[in-house]
Design goal:
The complex is a heterodimer. Chain A is of the alpha/beta class. In chain A, α4 packs across α6. The C terminus of chain A is likely disordered. Helix content of chain B is 27%, strand content 22%. Classes of the chains: A alpha/beta, B alpha/beta. At the A-B interface, α1, β1 and α5 of A face α1, β2, β3, α4 and β8 of B.
């Protein structure tokens, strides 16, 4: 019996398989994106050493041994700094009215009617006194408030303009401690913003895209309710 | 019947594609072997801190890089040093004058306040006093480079 010749395996589809692999990895592989935290430095020309009412400031203090203290009395436990700071930040923005202006900053209810009236009267004033910067600045703020009212359905609560979160650091405080404090503040803010956005629009603030006009409006409105105002103080402030 | 004409038209032999997979695999392996994530700086020891709340760094070619950490080169000592765009900072005021130069470049000056980012890559254990010193130079009225970002590792 004659030996049958073994048939050669057709390898022409191997190239397709290899190409498929190549394309798959080309498409799915992404570069590791760098993660950052934002901060805006204050201008030098801005007034320094302004006196602030204690209830308008959430003081967060980190000493040279990297111990964190909130409001000069609450010691933050090591290991859960971010969560605890976030809690205080939330209290700073959302608290019962009875605690306003003695423990925490005042929160004002802004209504659309109020905004419209202010915009109208300030427009007249700004036209009358074009040299007075205050009128045009106020007008800008009230226009933003009006936009926020429109987006949020008529009215919203706004924290006092004077309210700030102050971070006081020692020169030898470690950088990682500062990042922890910053992280705590941002976590608190983001949680509140997400909650508000969920309540009004059934979605997360962090999912909004600032390139889409509609979503940018929502973002601006939410940032009016929970503004990010942080300032860094120089050195450890002496107690009175 | 001519001498050269062929009785039947002969078919062209098919080009063998047997070697094609080898070529593609070679390409695949080449890219697999040669691609690697961007390495950290070669001149500074850096361990970045971790954070929960982060934003993704946008693609941006108009950023100024600041490194703060201990130098890898033992000849430079064992204290925390500052590098700006890969150049070691030797004296006070050097950052301000460097930024002033950058600000004069048209592509940078147009978007100086909106798009130019000062990206800080700082070692976890670096003292804040040094970071603040650098930032004071950024705040100088002649440059006003105010948009700062801190590079962090994401904590899950």
């Amino acid at each position: 019996m004659a030996k049958r010749e073994i048939e050669e395996i057709n390898a022409s589809s191997m190239a397709d398989i290899a190409f498929l692999l190549l394309v798959f990895f080309l498409v799915t592989s992404t570069f590791l994106k760098e993660k950052v935290q934002d901060e805006r430095l204050p201008q030098k020309t801005e007034q320094e050493g302004v006196k602030l009412k204690p209830y308008n400031v959430l003081t967060i203090l980190a000493n040279k041994d990297d111990r964190i203290l909130v409001e000069d009395e609450f010691d933050i436990n090591e290991g859960s700094e971010v969560e605890e700071i976030a809690e205080y930040v939330t209290k700073f923005y959302i608290h019962p009215a009875s605690e306003s202006e003695n423990k925490w900053p005042a929160v004002y209810k802004i209504t659309q009617k109020q905004c419209e009236d202010s915009v109208a009267s300030l427009t007249v004033k700004a036209d009358q006194f074009p040299d007075n910067q205050n009128y045009s600045m106020d007008l800008k703020t009230w226009k933003k408030r009006l936009a926020a009212c429109e987006v949020l359905g008529g009215s919203y609560n706004e924290i006092s303009e004077k309210a700030v979160i102050g971070i006081t650091l020692d020169n030898s405080t470690k950088y990682e401690t500062y990042i922890k404090v910053l992280d705590g503040i941002l976590t608190g803010l983001t949680d509140m913003r997400n909650a508000l956005c969920q309540e009004k629009f059934q979605r997360n603030y962090t999912d909004l895209d600032s390139d889409i006009e509609e979503e940018k409006k929502i973002m601006d409105a939410i940032e009016m309710v929970y503004p990010k105002r942080i300032f860094k103080a120089k050195g450890i402030a002496s107690a009175q | 019947m001519s001498k050269f004409s062929k009785g039947k038209k002969r078919k062209d032999p098919a080009i063998s594609t047997a070697a094609l997979p080898d070529i593609v695999f070679m390409l695949l392996f080449f890219f697999m072997v040669t691609t690697k994530p961007k390495k950290d700086s070669s001149f500074v020891i850096l361990k970045e801190p971790q954070a929960f709340e982060t934003v993704e760094l946008e693609k941006n070619d108009k950023s100024i890089l600041y490194w703060i950490g201990k130098p890898k080169n033992p000849a430079l000592g064992d204290t925390y040093r500052v590098w700006v765009d890969d150049a070691l900072v030797e004296s006070q005021g050097q950052i301000t004058s460097y930024l002033y130069e950058v600000k004069q470049i048209p592509e940078f000056s147009e978007v100086w306040y909106s798009e130019v980012i000062n990206l800080f890559k700082v070692d976890s254990k670096a003292p804040m006093g040094l970071v603040r010193e650098v930032q004071e130079e950024l705040r100088d009225p002649s440059v006003e480079a105010l948009r700062v970002q801190y590079s962090v590792k994401e904590k899950k």
